[in-house]
Every structure is written in structure tokens, then in C-alpha cells.
Amino acid sequence: MRSIDSQIAPAPGRRAYTRARSTPAVYPLLTHDSPTCTIAWRQDRAYSVQEFLRSVWALASQLPAKQYALNLCRDRYHFAVGFAAALVARHISLLPTCRAAEPSQQLSQRYPDAYVLTDHDETEITLPQLRITEHVGGASGASGIPLIPTDRIAAIAFTSGSSGFPRAHAKSWGSLVLGAKALGRQFDLSSHPARTAVGTVPAQHMYGLETTVMLPLQWGWSLHAGNSILPADIRTDLEQLGSPAWLMTTPIHLNAYLSERTMLPGLEGIISATMPLARSVAQEAEHLWHVPVHEIYGCTEGGMLASRHTADGDLWTLCHELRMKHERDTTSVMGGHVGAWLQLTDRISMQNSREFLLLGPNYDLVKVAGKRASLAALNTALSRVNGVLDGTFYWPDQGRSGNGRLSAFVVAPGVTPAAILADLRKRIDPVFLPRPMYLVPTLPRNATGKLPHEQLETFADRVRHSARHLRG
Predict the structure, then answer these.
(1) How many beta carbons lie within 10 A of that of residue 435, not counting itself?
(2) How confident is the model at residue 20 (pLDDT cuts 50, 70, 90)?
(3) Domain 369-471 belongs to what architecture?
(4) Residue 218: what are its φ and ψ, rounded to 5°?
(5) With the CA atoms of 446, 449, 455 and 456 taken in that order, what torsion angle do they form, in degrees rounded to the nearest 10?
């Protein structure tokens, strides 16, 4: 058995199992008050803190002597055990947002000194694989709380690729812990008893990691082990939990639950992110489920930066520990879990030192006939058209080809393009009306509801080719 030299807190016991005393040098893996606390739920099965820690230590001793752990576990509990074991073994977790064959192969070439942690068959990647289900559950032995150095690189997270090829960002353990603490303070979680975090976003996504893994670990909550998305499955998950829950989700998923009038028993709060949430959707959700709906603004580079109660208005409130400044055409944040000044890729209008309006990404400005508009604003207008379930404006080659004409792909069963254009004409300047408009059954959104740039380009080429073929 390979030795593991991370510091640990005392083994669990009623008196010894106190919250690990943090210093500027280390933070504990978790902050639960007792080894018998529930740290995860799977259907009607509860996992205790002690069981979790034993699995972590047992798995850490079996990991290969490599530098990177590519964590592809779909089950959130398996992911958490693998993530923690990699931390203990001083390995860096790679957290890709896309599981497609080509990106996976590119990742394995970029990080050859890596192995895969998985709980299912991975046929598209050639790296050595360790099936985590064979090492979780029934472990005995060490169950002390690991104390992880603050400056240790815990993970490399990747952007979604909505503006191009996914970019890698290293995340220290300290930044992840401080981000989780900031998240809890932003929503005043210290005034609530321990709850369960249920997520529809993969744990590999920065938003999913923060809200469904790091938040439970650092606030004494439990996490839901599953990866449900469908309305009926989410309802069943909530019915089987042993404690009230918060749902960490996206506007795409919220719209699906609202359209089916899904009941969400035991829910106490909702957090949404990854794309703007319409105020009407937030208001409808609060009316149906009688819980507050909050929205997070953040990025892979900095994690959560601000939040808003969407039903109340458009203003975002910056996290307490952060500072924001605006110079010329750029906005930056610093402090807390962000650290040094970080330049944001979004256009922001500061209203005061704590509040701001989000105007959209810098890269989504389009210019047609001398006029400028934001693709985000155009997409918002499109989403408000009667009968439109989903849709996106598309700017070929981001205008680089010299063709400034916008097109659009719209999911609107039973609605004609003429009707959509007539409604849209009331909402946007006519120069930005999409020509042509394509009615499609679905859009190629990923698990977080985003449209990665490369997938959207491929999708657009396929739809346009089919349209030309039909015209003869």
C-alpha cells in the first residue's frame, strides 16, 4: 500500500471529531460536526461522513502514480469520493465539461500523465481507467479528516467552449474552499440547518462543483448522489431524501419542470446559473413551488461572483469579499476566492460599488448596417416570442467572413417563421431580424444548457445543407 502523507485531523469520535481548525496554510476536506452526519443520499440510502472518509482513504491508497486524475464519474457521490481521494494523493483532478470522443482524445493527448476515474464504461478514451465503484463502500481503516494545503492545485476546470475551444483554468484548494464559503454567505446559509444539495448540472462543471460538491463539504450539508435531469426523476429524488433540499439547476431545466407542472416536494430554495434566467420564469417558479429562486453570475476563472433574486429585478449584487472596478471598456474583480484582479469577458454597467447590470459577453456584439446589438439581448427577445420553446441567433464566422447577416435556429412546434418574425419585429430593430430562420426540433445544447461554439457551427452547417438540398 502506497503511503499517503497528507495531514489529517484526529480520527472520528464524539469529542475528537470537532471542526478542523483552519490556518492560512490548510483547510479541512469537510466541516461536518459528527462522523454519523449524512454526507450523501442515493434514493433511500444514506452515506455517513465516516463511510465517506473511509472510502476516500482506501481509494487514495490505490491510485496509480500519476499526476492527473480525469474524473468522469456521473454519480455525484462517486465523483466526490474520487475528487477527495485525488486531493489526498496530491493528484490534480481534470474536470472536462464535454464527454464527446474528440475532446476526450484531445484531453488525453494534452495530459498524457493522467488516468481516468469512472463509474461506467469509457470506450472513447485510451488513458488507464480505474472503476471507482469497485473501491467505494465497505472500506475500513482510516477515517480522519484530511487537511489540504491551501495552495495545492486541486483541479483544472475548463470553460464550456461557447466562445471557442475550451480553456483550462487551475483551481487551488484554497480558492475552492473560499468560494464555497462565499456562496453560503451570499445566501445566508448559516441561518439554515443542514440541507441536501440536488443538482441537474454535472459535478465537472464549475457551477456544479461549487454548488453540489464544495458547498455540502464546507457547510455540513449532504449531496444527492444521482444525476437526474428529467422532471419525474427530480420529483422522485426529492421524495426519497431524508432532509429538505435546494435545487441547483439551469434555466433550461427550470423551463422543462414548469412546462410539465412538476411538483417538487421538500424544496426550500432554487439556484440557477449557466445562462440568463427570465424574470417571468423565476416568478412562475416561485408561484408554483413557493420557494425563492436565486441566480448566480460567475465564470470558470473566478467561480461565483454575484447573485440576484431574479423575480425582483435585473440588478446583481457582488459577493461581500469582492471588489469590482471598471476601466474604459473592461470590468475586473478581485479579493476573496478570486484573488488578484481578474478581467471579466462580459460587458457590465456598474450602478454602485456593490450592484451592477450584466449587458452580455464582449464577444457577442454584432454590427449590421452600422448598428450594434448583443446576441444575448437578441436571444432574450427571441425567447419571449409566443410559441418559441428554444432558439438562438447565429452570426456566421462571428462576422469575420464579411457576411454580417444574422440567421436563427428556432424550436417552435406549430408556429410559422412568418409569425415568429412578425412578433420579433415588435421587439428588436428590423435590421437584426434573422434571414433566414430555420425551424428545428432541438438545439445541440450541452448538459448545462449552453451551445458550445464548435457544436453550433457543425449544427448550423448541417441544417443549412439540408435546407439547400430540400430546395433542390
Answers:
(1) 10
(2) very low
(3) 2-Layer Sandwich (3.30)
(4) -95, -5
(5) 160
